Amino acid sequence: MGIRPFFPHRCLSGLPNLSSTSFMSLTPELEAIRKEVEGYAREYGLDFFDVIFEILDFDKLNEVASYMGFPTRYPHWRFGMEYEQLQKSYTYGLQKIYEMVINNDPSYAYLLKCNNDVDQKLVMAHVYGHVDFFKNNIWFSHTNRKMMDGMANHGARIRRYIDRYGEEKVERFLDCCLSLENLIDPHSPFIKRQDEKPRFNFQEEEEEKTIKKLKVERPYMDSYINPADFLESQKKKLEQEAEKKQKFPENPERDVLLFLINHAPLENWQLDILSIIRDEAYYFAPQAQTKIMNEGWASYWHSKIMTQKCLKDSEVVDYADHHSGTLSTRPGRINPYKLGIELFRDIEDRWNKGKFGKEYEECDDLEKKKNWDKKLGLGMQKIFEVRKIYNDVMFIDAFLTEEFCREQKLFTYRYNEQTQMYEIADRDFKKIKASLLFSLTNFGQPFIYITDANYGNRGELYLQHRYEGVELRIDYAKDTLQNLYTLWKRPVHLETVVNDKGILFTFDGKNHEERRI
Amino acid sequence: MSSKIERDHARFNQIIRGKIKKELRRYMTRGELIGKKGKDLVSIPIPQVEIPHFEFETRKLGGVGQGEGEPGTPIGRGDAEPGQGAGETPGDHILEVDLSLEELAKILGEELELPRIEPRGKKNIVNEKERYTGIRQVGPESLRHFKRTYKAALKRQLATGTYDPNHPLVIPIQEDKRYRSWKLTKEPESNAVIFYIMDVSGSMGDEQKEVVRIESFWIDTWLRSQYKGIESRYIIHDAVAREVDSHTFYHTRESGGTIISSAYELCNRLIDAHYNPSEWNIYIFHFSDGDNWYGDTDKCLSILENHLLPKVNLFCYGQVRSFYGSGQFKGEIDEYFADAENVVTSEINSKEGIYDSIKEFLGKGK
Questions:
Q1: Is A361 inside any structural domain?
Q2: Does ipTM top 0.95?
Q3: Is B137 in the A-facing interface, judged by CB distances under 8 Å?
């Protein structure tokens, strides 16, 4: 297996705690390269925060990567696990992190010390692409641009709780919170889900609502204008409304973490930790929402800047090697770099040639379609627009075409129970698109809602999984319920579907139960 | 100051060790560890150190890939059964942790509450070892201690005023020179040899051998952690006994009758030829299904009593339950050697019995 270059732009930041000897700013040679690359990037119209480059050796880079880029994060064993895996895969030559960049203003980017100059040049161009994306993509608009300080602050708070309440206790609680960290509502920064209601504003008892009949001019028409089933449905509606009023929460709640912060019986330090976990989850969410676009955009620009501007003859082979490694594909997996860059190029090409719109869509002459060129030259403008307002789901939905699928040899795969192998299932465009969209929607994770926080009128928490054809992993679900119980302190339920039958999983503090519903 | 990641890493390792310890009984009944044994590391697959989330069953998920191939072309191996083995493609949920055998033995010892072994004949055997611990003023140039020589020369030059800071040249003369020197230290050394004897007659099936294989692995791991130099000898027997290498030991299947005494005789001969009981700690582990040739049992008991037992630290007899075996031999030994201190017998009904059996065997600390 070759070395697979790997750019998790999972962001990093925060320098304290790292001694000055382990961090190096750019050498004069690299600084000259940086200036050159930055100049080209600006020429092309990229718009980014200032970027501070630091150079790290492997150990440090792995350390920083284990903390998802923030060396000052709170202490937790899972970062140690991450570190172990990174160190191992580096030792065995399986993967190598070339660079990391964090979404912050100014942005921090970390370069690997032992890379040669071509690699550094490429990586810098790549980084400027990422930072432009961070700054301009709408989905990042609500992220904290001072997260470097934010993370350090979180770290300090949690360390203080450890000092005060003990490592075991805090760790146990952190584990529980982290187990629920994906239960957020990533769109909530953009939408007002519910009107804020003052808590103690009691309204006077409303008079009982009556069924509204449609206006009848002539009494004998009454049974035609307001037939019995219409009245019945109106009555039901009223009843439902009344029922809903009594429900808590009134509407299914997706931001489980927020709900717990507001309503779970927790101590102050626990509330604080829970809100820290929630903050960080929301900070990282846009990166997961735009993985394909973000990597595609950065790759698009490193390739453009390198091949059109600053690549020297002597560097071509190294560049090609690195670039092709980054974009290499393996059968069982989508490479976001590859998919992203190809889609951006496809969009650019289509909008340059005018391959869009009603006339193009309705043309059924394949030859004509293939050579379609209206010389519009809108490509560059279009891709900048796309990077501003799209996320991965919208990106794939809008721009993945049948021609593109065929060209890129995409397929869907499935698990074959008999052979215990994953195998290619289909090359049908619609299925590929559906599968890809499914894997991107909600980060490829199940939708879980709190539907009732007073289940059975006993203050029990009732969660519902919106089943869309894929089952949950049961052992994990049970463990997660157990963790949820630790926070809620009353029995917790999860409604889901197993083998096409509705199942209710319950954990009551001692035992797991499951029953058909 | 240790870095932050070291702390988190250490904590992670601690959690892993805890997991292994908790699940030891389960690991001990599985043969797969043995297959993963390297020179001095074992890779232990540990499921689910991850933090659980509500997530999809990955195998039912499917997905999108890229590349050549017709529908039906396999692209990667899936999980053999849930939570075991790693899928090559999406979502690897198994973590392999490398553990040194020594550490594994430590965990084993703690969990089974095995006492440390007091080696026999420890005082008798003394080995002389050279250690370079001292410094002398004479010696061969190859042992010259550069740093100390330099320091001595520098001191002398400073004292005599011949040192010039602007021209810091230090030249040692003969009396500045320092040499490493060795001292002979006497070290007690304990050697040990383990004899594994297995009945390979027709009645010992694959399942029984698997039990023996796993149990020997753990015994070996424990004893190796207790002695520095250790040797293993393997003897198989049906109606006749012969010495084999470890591979043959675990993989042969003979058929025919069983004469246990043949193995004891061979073992005794080997001990006499190679292992002087005053210098060696000798362990014998004998696994059988308890069937023996009628009339041979008395001979076995007499060899044990007169020849083997006086020479060994411990004689362990493990009776693996098999469909065919009569299982009488254990009863005979128990009865005859009821008072003997260095005889342990144990009945292993299935893989699950390994854990307790090892505890019985090694729990005496002999």
A1: yes
A2: no
A3: no
Q: Which residues of B touch A436 (CB under 8 A)?
A: 64
Cβ–Cβ gap B13/A80 under 8 Å: yes
Helix axis angle for A268-289 and A167-179, nearest 10°, is: 40
The residues, any chain, with a CB within 8 Å of residue A108's CB and separated by 6 or more, are A12, A13, A14, A51, A52, A54, A69, A101, A102, A148
The number of folded domains in chain A is 3
Q: What's residue A6's pLDDT?
A: 39
Q: Give yes or no: residues A14 and A141 share one domain.
A: yes
Tell me: the pLDDT tens digits for A404-460?
A: 999 888 988 888 878 878 888 888 999 999 989 988 888 888 999 999 998 988 999
Model confidence over B314-329: pLDDT tens digits? 888 988 887 766 678 8
Enumerate residues 6+ apart whose C-beta is below 8 A from A417. none
Classify burial at B225, counting beta carbons within 10 Å of its beta carbon; exposed 0-12, middle 13-18, buried 19 or more.
buried
- Closest-CA residue of A relative to B53 is A179
Task: Answer yes or no: do A410 and B73 touch at CB < 8 A.
Answer: no
Closest-CA distance of chain A to residue B142, Å: 36
What is d(CA A497, CA A332) in angstroms, rounded to the nearest whole number?
A: 27
Q: What is the β-pairing status of strands B241-244 and B229-237?
A: antiparallel
DSSP A74: P
Cβ-based contacts of B95 with chain A (< 8 Å): 81, 85
Rounded to a whole number of angstroms, the distance from the CA of B104 to the nearest CA of chain A is 19
pLDDT digits (tens, 9 = 90+) for A182-234: 999 988 888 766 655 555 655 555 556 677 777 777 888 888 888 888 888 88
With a cut of 50, say whether residue A7 has pLDDT above it. Answer: no
Q: Name the band, by pLDDT with cuts 50, 70 and 90, for residue B153.
A: very high
User: What is the residue extent of each domain of chain B?
Assistant: 4-112, 126-186, 191-362
Domain assignment of residue A119, given as a range: 4-149+287-327
Q: Would you state the CATH architecture of domain B191-362?
A: 3-Layer(aba) Sandwich (3.40)
